[in-house]
Amino acid sequence: xxxxxxxxxxxxxxxxxxxxxxxxxxxxxxxxxxxxxxxxxxxxxxxxxxxxxxxxxxxxxxxxxxxxxxxxxxxxxxxxxxxxxxxxxxxxxxxxxxxxxxxxxxxxxxxxxxxxxxxxxxxxxxxxxxxxxxxxxxxxxxxxxxxxxxxxxxxxxxxxxxxxxxxxxxxxxxxxxxxxxxxxxxxxxxxxxxxxxxxxxxxxxxxxxxxxxxxxxxxxxxxxxxxxxxxxxxxxxxxxxxxxxxxxxxxxxxxxxxxxxxxxxxxxxxxxxxxxxxxxxxxxxxxxxxxxxxxxxxxxxxxxxxxxxxxxxxxxxxxxxxxxxxxxxxxxxxxxxxxxxxxxxxxxxxxxxxxxxxxxxxxxxxxxxxxxxxxxxxxxxxxxxxxxxxxxxxxxxxxxxxxxxxxxxxxxxxxxxxxxxxxxxxxxxxxxxxxxxxxxxxxxxxxxxxxxxxxxxxxxxxxxxxxxxxxxxxxxxxxxxxxxxxxxxxxxxxxxxxxxxxxxxxxxxxxxxxxxxxxxxxxxxxxxxxxxxxxxxxxxxxxxxxxxxxxxxxxxxxxxxxxxxxxxxxxxxxxxxxxxxxxxxxxxxxxxxxxxxxxxxxxxxxxxxxxxxxxxxxxxxxxxxxxxxxxxxxxxxxxxxxxxxxxxxxxxxxxxxxxxxxxxxxxxxxxxxxxxxxxxxxxxxxxxxxxxxxxxxxxxxxxxxxxxxxxxxxxxxxxxxxxxxxxxxxxxxxxxxxxxxxxxxxxxxxxxxxxxxxxxxxxxxxxxxxxxxxxxxxxxxxxxxxxxxxxxxxxxxxxxxxxxxxxxxxxxxxxxxxxxxxxxxxxxxxxxxxxxxxxxxxxxxxxxxxxxxxxxxxxxxxxxxxxxxxxxxxxxxxxxxxxxxxxxxxxxxxxxxxxxxxxxxxxxxxxxxxxxxxxxxxxxxxxxxxxxxxxxxxxxxxxxxxxxxxxxxxxxxxxxxxxxxx
Length: 966
Fold this sequence. Notes:
9 helices; 61 strands; 8% helix; globular
C-alpha cells in the first residue's frame, strides 16, 4: 500500500512506513563518511573488495563494517546522524534514504555482534532509526541509544536521550521513553524484557567497549601520531560556532578552560552542558570548570592537542557540513602506533541527570596521554535553583481508583489553577483552598510535594518537563489513601494555526494505570502498544466555511501475540472556541477483546480538553503544543460487556510530534474518484447475556455494498457498509461520519463525527443524522468506528500489500436493538476506485498479484485475528486458468484454480473462485472462498484487487478481506 508521509493520528498498530520524496539513486551513492577511525576496522561495499577504513573515507548503502579487538569507527551520515561502532563488531548499513528538503528519510542497520551507539539526526526526529539483531528489532526516535549484541545474538538496548526507543522480539514490542532504562532480548522467539533502570555499572559495561580498552603503553613518554586533515578542516569550519558556544557558556562556567590555555579553553568550553568543562577530561556538570588541562591541551598535556582538534564530537558533527568530511583524495589514517581510546563522560550513578549529561557529552573524543595516572576533577559548584520566568497554569486531579479514574465530579479533588511560578527549583501555586508546591528541575526525575492541596500527607512520584520548558506533568501518589494524582501545567497558548495540520503523541492513562488512553487496564488485558509516537492530529481551518470543520482525530491500538488480545481507542472531534481560547470536543469509541476468556468490550463516551482556572485548554506559548483529554465535564466513559457495564473518568496527555501531510483528495460517490469495496467481520449478538456469533460479508457479494467518501475541503468523511450475516442471512447497515451539503450534498450540515487528514489517514464514528440498521429495523443506540489502516499502523505482521490505489482498514463498535446488543471488534474493510465489468472483459493476458489477507477467526469459541500472504495469477483471457494461493494464515494455507467474472451492483466487475480453495497445514480439511473486484489506477483498470474471503471447517470459521497489487 502507498504509505503517506504523515504518520498521523494513531499509535500501536497505527501509522505505517512513510513514503519519501527523494531517494538515493543507486546503492553505491555516498551516504556518509568516517569521521573517526582507530586501527583494525574495515569496510566492504557491495561487489567490492574489502578495504581498510581511515578518516574521511566515504561509506555507501549496504556496506558491511567489521572491527577487530582494537577497531573502532565513528561515522557521520548525510542527515547528521552519528553512528559509533565498537571493537569486535559486525554491522551492515542496510538502508539510507534522505530528502534534505523535507528532512525525512529512513535509516536501517543490521548487526550480528558488537557494541554500537547511535546519535539520531534529522531523519530520526520523524522516523525511527532501526537496528536489527539476531534476536530483536530496535527503533530509536530523536535520541541516543547504546546497543550491545552478544555473539549468541542476545541484545541489550539502553535508551539515553530523546523521544523513545522500542524493542520488538517474539511478536511482542516494548517501548521506553525514560532515559536511563534498558531492554534485553535473549532469543528471536521470546518477548523482550520490561524496561529496567540502568546503573552506573550497566553504563560502564556498555561504554567500555566504545572506549576500546586500550591501555596506554607505560614506556611511552608522550603521545604521537598524525592528525587527520579532514578532521582538522572540519574543526576549522566549526571554530566560529564553537567560539560562540564558549562565549555563551563562559558566563555559567567561569570561562571554561581559560586557565589551561586560550585555544584549548575555547575548544573545551563546547563540550559541557552549559558550555564549560571539567578541565581534566573535557566533561562537565552544569558549567563547571577548572580548565587546568583544557580538554587535554592545557598546561599538563605535554603533547599535541589531539582531543580538541583531531576527532569531532557528536555535537561537532551535528553542526558540520558533510562535504567537509568526505574527500576524493586518499585520507591520512591515524598513526597505528598511537594508543587511542574513545572517551565518554560517565557520572558515578545512573541518575536522570547523569544520563542527560552523557546524552549531551557523547564525547567520543580521541585522546592521548603521557602516563596512566589520573587526577580526580574538582567538584562542580552547587548549581543555582531551577527557574522559569513564565507563569504556568493547569489542573491537578485526584484519582478515585484505578477502575474509576479521576474524581472529576468532586470539586475539591479537581483543582484548576493559574499564575503558578517556577523559582529556585520549586513549582508553586494556589490550588483550591490550599497550595500545591513541589520540586522541579530541567531534567525529568522524582518529585515530592512540600504541600498537598488535598490533605496533609505527602504527594510523591515523578515529573516530566517537556523540552520546550512550557509544559510539565506530575504523576504522583497521595500517601494518605494511595490514590494516584495527575497534575499538569503549562504556558497557555496565545496563537493558533489557521491552516495545515499539527500532530501529537497521545499517552496512556496514568491514574487508571493503562497503556491505552481511555481504556481501563483490566479491559486491555496483556495487549501492548507499538512504536508509533504520532497518534493524533488536528486539521486547522479558519475559512469560516459553514461546512468546514477543524477536525481532530486520534487512534491508539495494541495487541498481544501471546494471549491474542487486541485494543482500539478512537477519538474523533473538532476544535471549538470558548472564552478561554480554543478547545477540543468530540466522541470516544473503542473496543477490546481480552484473550483467553474472549470477553468483548465496547467503549463509548464524550471527550473534551481539561482546562486551567482561566478556561485555557492548549499550552505551549505561541503554539498549541500540549493538551490533556478527559471525559467531558459531568460525564463518564462507558465500558460494556456481556457481563456488565462500568463507567469511569479517564485522562490522557498529548504532546506535539513531527509529521507531514500526504496527498488530500476529495472522493465522492458522484465522481469517478468515489471508493467502493468489501468488508467482513464477526458480530457477537447478546440477548439477555446469551451470546451467539456470526460472520458478516458484503450483502450482495459486490463492491457496491461498501462506499467511502472524503472531503479535502471540509476535512470530513462519510461511509456506509451494507452487510449480511453468513449463516443467519440478517441484513446490517452501518453508517459512519458526517452528512454535509457542502461536502457530500445529501444531508444536514454536521461536524465532529469524522476526521480526514490525508488520503490514507482518516476515520469516523457513528453518523449523527442517519441511523444504522439491523434486520431492517433502525438501531435504537449505536457507538461505531471506522478508520484507515495507515491511521492505525498498517498490518499487524509482515507481508502487507504494497498497494498504491486501494485503501484498507478497520471498523467495529456496537448497535442496540429493542431485543439485542450487536458488537463487532476490529473487523476489516478494503476499498478503491473499482473497475466496471465491461472494462475488465476487455483486458487480456495474465497478471500476477501479491498482497495479504486479514480477518477474524472463531476457532472452537476462541476468537482472534489472523493474517496471511496472498498470491494470485489472473488469466484475463481465460479466467478458468487463474490460480490462487494463500500461505501462513493461522498456521496453514489454501490453494485452487479457476475464477469466474460477472457484473455486480452498478455494473462493477466481480470475480469468484470457481471452486472452493483447498486447505493445507493447520488448515487441512477446511475450505476457503474468495469474492473480489479490480481496482483501477495509473491508467490500469486492473492495477490491484480487493475482496472478501471466508473459511469454513469443523468447529472453525474465519472471514476478512484481501488486498493485492501487481
